[in-house]
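Tutorial handout. Part one gives the primary structure; part two gives the three-dimensional structure as tokens.
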Amino acid sequence: MRSIGDVFSQIGDAFSVLWEHKKLLVFSYAGTLALVLCFYKIYLRADQLGFEIPDSFDPSKYSLIHLGAAVALAIAGNFSQNLISFVLIRCFLEINDKNECSLIGALLSGILNSVSILLWSVLETVVGVFLRFVKDSDSFLGRVAGTLMSVAWSAAAYFVLPIMAAKGANPLKALDESSELVSTTWGAQAVGAFGFGVIYFFFYLTTIPFLFSKSPFAVYYFIGYVSLILSVHAAHLAVFGADLYLYAAHERKRFRAIDDESLNSSVRAS
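Part two.
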């Protein structure tokens, strides 16, 4: 079991990689901004047409057409986010191996693997809809079961994209391998989730003043700023997850929370 300090050090290492290779942050921001603007325009157009996009997946409240639209948008959103993360992970794997990366090469790899990424996005969305439906249950036991299943699913699926990027595995094989690593990484995943939650919570708080702005361009300022935070957060998570996967798979070469010399010293001391 790794210590909390080790995991937080690894979070810092992940951001150091992004800061050293700023083109990854630029790519993440460009992709995230385009995605947010696209969805903003879709929701705006739907509102103009009087078409309500559901905020839940309760079949008793919405028609199948409305639910189908919500699921389609969820799949499109997950696919876009997963594609961005896949490219960032591919770049990180190259940096870990060769200390440099080709963003264009990583993007081409993402395009070539777009079918697998789409299939994973569909599976991820279907499972997410099911878990959301269970958690929205009127039954207390149903809500508890839904929460526990969500935690288990998140842990099992944590390394799917890193495995797909590293090995070219299909989604089901990647999910199977990812679930096998849970026993050795669940502690680091939990600490990482807490660390990222605390760190980025304060950044998201800084978006509140935009909500009270009276500027006619306030919504676009808000979108631009939120997209910036979302993109850094997503890139940080992607690199941290890939780094943690390499650690679990014993393939880490450069970015070690505990370097070999320190590890050897501790072994000799014991």
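Part three, for discussion. Confidence is low (pLDDT under 50) at residues 254-270. The radius of gyration is 20 Å.
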